[in-house]
Amino acid sequence: MTATVEPASIVEHSPPQRSAIRSMTRPPSIAADAFFAELASVLPRGDAASLVVTHLLPGQMNFLPALGQVAEVSAVLPKPKSADRRTQDVVSETHRLDPLDRGRFADPDWLASYLEDRSDGRPMVLVDIGGYFAPALSEVCRMLPGLIRGVVEDTENGLRRYLALPDLACPVYSVARSPLKEPEDRLVGEAIVFSVETLLRRLGEVLPGRQATVLGFGKIGAGIAAALHARHVRVVVYDRDPIRQAQAVAVGYGRAAFHDALTQAELVFSATGNRAIGMEELACLHDGAFLAGATSADDEFDLAGLVRPRSGFERDDVVPGVARYMRDGRSFSLLGSGNAVNFLHTSAIGPAIHVIKAEIIAAAARLVTLPHEPGLYEVPHGTRAEIAAAWLDAFQPTDSAPAPVTVASEEGALL
Ligand SMILES: NC(=O)c1ccc[n+]([C@@H]2O[C@H](COP(=O)([O-])OP(=O)(O)OC[C@H]3O[C@@H](n4cnc5c(N)ncnc54)[C@H](O)[C@@H]3O)[C@@H](O)[C@H]2O)c1
Asked: What pLDDT was estimated at residue 25?
């Protein structure tokens, strides 16, 4: 069950603050900085510190100063498969970068000592992408009572890792199912298809007219299917959940049994986060098929057998990002080593990224200013509406006056 701490009062937002960030011609990075500066102007200054698991991607890091105001960023932990070199260099000028390692983070003794060191005596907010803090969370909360103020988790996969715990030992905010996340999900589908198309074009191939299967018609799979449809690709969807399958069929996509969905497709996109494809499924793939994933290879595929010496597969690295595997006169190509293929090309999604980062910061602000029982939380609707209004003002202003609404808590303005 999702609990919410309801905002205590609604106060007026002064129009000059809003008009200060208005401009039809402002470049996106300046608009993003202005958006987060406005956010910071209404956020509390907390005495907490934060650790921030994040992609390090161009155009996506503007949120760090505003988050740092709420809970000083004691270290940034880049996700290894989505750390752009130049972005990393820029962020390292102002922030400590620590390595992210699922194995070490699962060890309570190691994690407790690491958190104690980085907290410098302050309570900590853990900003997560992918459930890195989940395995050792209960044990660390028991070992160091009061140290962890709470967790803010960005993704669906990460949310599932927290939900799988027998109980939550501290408050955990999730933004994965927020309406403010929906544009990102849609645009990630677009970015995944862009990357696959880019790789195919390097091989002299194109998308239009092909037959594709999308496994998983969730938030990302629906975006992939829409982006493929827009490129004149014939799309079949397979989702094991009949509700999702019906949604796909109802909006016009084809349907097939799992085995047929694999054998008939020249392109297979796996967006389940649930290891839908293992070694057995590889044997069913259409000869010459391309296989692409939406999340970390370990979460999407179970392909450990591919690299075993006796697998019988021969690997040919055709171009960067495309590995062809051949056996018994048949082949398939794995794109981006099975990892989320959009990160091969920066996974750019434009200003949509900032609106969900703002919700993450608002969640952190709630953790540092409001008392919470352990449990799962979402940011209240009124706060989301306020973030959306500020984002619209920054990136798509109109001449009419913005709605003067600000959500505040008894302790001070949150947003
Ligand atoms: N690449 C990126 O930038 C990016 C961004 C956000 C999320 N993701 C990842 O993409 C994955 C999907 O996320 P989502 O938000 O769409 O999740 P979701 O829960 O909304 O959708 C997953 C869908 O897969 C279906 N499914 C699960 N197991 C299946 C199986 N074995 N066969 C067929 N269908 C199956 C489920 O029924 C569900 O409809 C997650 O791992 C998520 O973390 C990637």
From this structure: 53
What distance in Å separates the CA atoms of residue 211 and residue 341, rounded to the nearest whole number?
A: 19
Nearest CA to ligand 1 atom 7: 155
Could you say which residues of the chain have pLDDT below 70? Answer: 1-26, 400-415
Residues with Cβ within 8 Å of residue 100, at least 6 apart in sequence: 53, 77, 78, 79, 80, 132
Q: DSSP string of 70-94?
A: HEEEEEEEEEEEEE-HHHHHHHHTT
Residues with CB under 6 A from ligand 1: 155-157, 188, 215-221, 238-241, 244, 271-274, 276, 294-295, 299, 340, 342, 347
Distance from C-alpha of 129 to C-alpha of 141, rounded to nearest angstrom: 19
pLDDT of residue 311: 85
CA distance 90 to 59: 12
157 CA closest ligand 1 atom index: 43
pLDDT value of position 27: 72
CA distance to 215, 249, 382, per residue, from 67 (Å): 36, 41, 20
The dihedral built from the CA positions of residue 363, 188, 104 and 83, taken in this order, carries a sign that is negative
Instruction: Give the CATH class of 9-182+349-413.
Output: alpha beta
Cβ neighbours of 16 (radius 10 Å): 7
Report domain extents, the chain: 9-182+349-413, 187-345
Which DSSP category does 97 fall into?
B
Domain covering 187-345, topology: Rossmann fold (3.40.50)
